[in-house]
Write a sequence for this structure.
């Protein structure tokens, strides 16, 4: 949203539904992709996140990076809560659905990189260690700097940076192995 | 494990001085910062940058499916348009109309204080029942109760209510007696005559509770057969100079109080008048 964020946020805080819709459309894809990496029930957690955002929108003060950091912090907390609830009710995971998201077939190498969907890339990132995958998503998808990412995941900015670099290298290897890249 | 213990392929960015060591660090930072990579960068770095750009791209089909739900929540929870958040915040935090538990003791204390003050005021005015007025006189210095009212219970306990009934009946209801007298076309002073003319068992006697005056019971014993049993309760009624033209020798006229002007049982009084007329 850039420079228009302040005005849009002010209108949303005043109850303007169209302004809130602008914010939602701008953030929701990144939120959903991030949650798909860290939580199986991404859509549900995203809905709970927006509920909490709406409830606290009147009290929010800050710029766009601060809003994103606030929203993804909420999302992470809700994902942790969902994970705890899921652990209390253990279920059998469906690995097949995750595998179907990967372009791992022999013909995948023929696909142009531009044709790779964000969902397929998210499927690749999910193969990374959990910490690296989350840091990459927060840094790249949520567009947070290393300081905000470090605050969200509870690590130092240096450790976050190292983990992000390792994750990217491993992601490049996974993509080459899967045939996504050449 | 030191750096020398690791294979180069496992930790490629941690071997400065070796081929491949730290080579990709600036490139990775450029990818993270979304800066364009130099032309000489490895192709895998370019592919990685494109892949991450796709991941940070615009919404794909289905990713905005939750918009309706979010907007509904926003419409439900957000303040109405035109009202500043600062103005709406206290309204949403306003407690419900149910009074808090902390207010109940205060309300009870206020009620108790109001009741106590009201009782004291009533005691000073003198409208409390006799025994209570006496207690108020002793405790808070309220005036003594009227003389007759103090003996009212004894009068009720009189075994012969019909004998000495007439003079003091309406001591407490002069207004009623006057009104009923007007209804029956006469003055209030006519009522004792009619009533006293029907000495006998009946509803009139049952309904008329005697309140004889002190003058009646003490100074002038009733010549009626019931006079042998003088009332134990002197009436508090004030003596009136109006003599009663009673056909009996009952001391009706001796009582000057409005007690003799009232009978609360009006139909019975009418029947008594009919009996007199007949």
């Amino acid at each position: 949203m850039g420079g228009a964020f302040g005005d849009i946020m002010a209108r949303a805080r005043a109850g303007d539904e169209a302004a809130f819709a602008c914010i939602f459309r701008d953030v929701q894809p990144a939120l959903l992709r991030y949650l798909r990496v860290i939580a199986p029930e991404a859509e549900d957690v995203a809905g709970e996140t927006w509920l909490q955002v709406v409830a606290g929108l009147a009290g929010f003060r800050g710029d766009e990076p601060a809003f994103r950091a606030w929203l993804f912090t909420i999302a992470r907390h809700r994902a942790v809560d969902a994970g705890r609830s899921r652990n209390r009710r253990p279920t059998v995971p469906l690995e097949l659905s995750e595998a179907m998201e990967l372009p791992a077939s022999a013909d995948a190498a023929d696909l142009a990189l531009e044709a790779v969907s964000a969902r397929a890339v998210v499927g690749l990132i999910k193969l990374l260690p959990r910490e690296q995958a989350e840091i990459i998503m927060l840094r790249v998808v949520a567009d947070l700097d290393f300081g905000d990412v470090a605050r969200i995941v509870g690590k130092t900015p240096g450790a976050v940076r190292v983990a992000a670099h390792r994750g990217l290298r491993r992601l490049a290897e996974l993509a080459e192995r899967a045939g996504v890249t050449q | 494990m030191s750096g020398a213990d690791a294979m180069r392929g496992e930790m490629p960015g941690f071997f400065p001085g070796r081929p491949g060591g730290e080579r990709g660090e600036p490139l990775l930072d450029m990818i993270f910062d979304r800066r364009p990579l130099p032309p000489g960068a490895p192709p895998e770095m370019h592919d990685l940058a494109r892949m991450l750009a796709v991941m940070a791209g615009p919404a794909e089909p289905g990713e905005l499916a939750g918009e309706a739900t979010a907007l509904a929540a926003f419409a439900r929870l957000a303040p109405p348009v035109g009202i500043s958040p600062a103005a709406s915040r206290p309204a949403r935090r306003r407690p419900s109309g149910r009074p808090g538990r902390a207010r109940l003791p205060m309300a009870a204390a206020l009620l108790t204080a109001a009741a106590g003050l009201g009782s004291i005021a009533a005691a000073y005015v003198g409208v409390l029942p006799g025994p209570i007025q006496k207690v108020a006189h002793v405790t808070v210095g309220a005036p003594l109760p009227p003389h007759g009212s103090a003996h009212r219970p004894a009068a009720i306990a009189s075994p012969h209510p019909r004998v000495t009934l007439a003079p003091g009946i309406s001591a407490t209801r002069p207004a009623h007696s006057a009104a009923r007298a007007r209804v029956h076309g006469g003055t209030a002073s006519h009522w004792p005559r009619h009533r006293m003319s029907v000495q006998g068992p009946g509803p009139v006697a049952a309904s008329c509770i005697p309140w004889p005056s002190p003058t009646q019971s003490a100074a002038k014993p009733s010549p009626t057969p019931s006079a042998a049993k003088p009332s134990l309760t002197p009436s508090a009624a004030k003596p009136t100079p109006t003599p009663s033209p009673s056909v009996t020798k009952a001391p009706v006229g001796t009582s000057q109080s409005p007690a003799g002007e009232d009978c609360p049982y009006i139909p019975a009084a009418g029947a008594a008048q009919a009996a007199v007329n007949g």
